[in-house]
Write a structure and sequence with these properties.
Elements (H helix, E strand, L loop, with lengths): L9 H14 L3 E9 L8 E6 L2 E6 L6 E5 L4 E7 L6 E6 L4 H6 L4 E7 L16 E6 L4 E4 L1 H70 L1
Length: 214
């Protein structure tokens, strides 16, 4: 049995191996989700590819890794009941040469905040960011023109949210103070009741002892 093959036999083998490897190349993103004033339970990331629902991720959102296909349009919707939904768009179209060279994983973080009835959140119907290939950088990055176009609206909403968060925090502190005072008063009343019960029990014991002596 020979251990060597003629060189001309290796070329088709290399082409057959390399073809599928290049076809399977993905655009990797790594992200983190934070819920302000809450936990990640019941938080979900819904991924849409080319306008159709692709998948839903319900766990591991504190740090996750997702592989996206190139030459596609993705919408990633970060959702939690009672909190404002945020969307990111990933346009993964890129030149073939750049794709073959590969890209470093794209890192980002998303923070969800509580939804308040009197804060207008219509602007969040649109994405908070669009990520696409930038020829000048030969890499993926945020679309700065889009970011600038929504910056003033986003800032206005966030100022209202921060104000509501402060009000809620002050209200919670006041409720905690009242609860502490109520608990303290109850503890004092319970202690006084226990003291009176002890005095009554002692008096009752002395009375019964006096009856026995008679």
């Amino acid at each position: 049995m020979t251990l060597f093959r003629p060189a001309y036999c290796l070329l088709p083998l290399v082409l057959l191996v390399c073809g599928p490897v290049l076809a399977q190349r993905k655009f990797t993103i790594t992200g983190r989700v934070k819920v302000e004033g809450g936990g990640l339970e019941n938080t979900r990331m819904v991924i849409y590819k080319n306008g159709e629902k692709d998948r839903t991720v319900n766990s591991g959102l504190s740090k996750f890794v997702v592989d996206l296909d190139f030459n596609a349009s993705y919408v990633m919707s970060f959702e939690k009941d009672g909190f404002v939904t945020k969307k990111l768009v990933f346009e993964t179209k890129a030149p073939a040469e750049a794709v073959s060279n590969g890209f470093a994983p794209f890192e980002f973080a998303v923070s969800l905040f509580k939804q308040y009835d009197d804060v207008n959140i219509v602007m969040f119907n649109q994405p908070v960011g669009i990520i696409r290939y930038e020829p000048e950088m030969d890499d993926f990055n945020y679309d700065t023109d889009y970011t600038k176009s929504i910056q003033s609206q986003l800032q206005e909403v966030m100022e209202q949210v921060v104000e509501k968060q402060k009000e809620e925090e002050e209200k919670n502190k006041e409720l905690e103070k009242q609860a502490a005072e109520t608990a303290k008063a109850k503890a004092k009343a319970d202690a006084e009741a226990a003291k009176q019960a002890a005095v009554f029990a002692k008096q009752e014991e002395e009375r019964k002892a006096a009856e026995v002596r008679q």
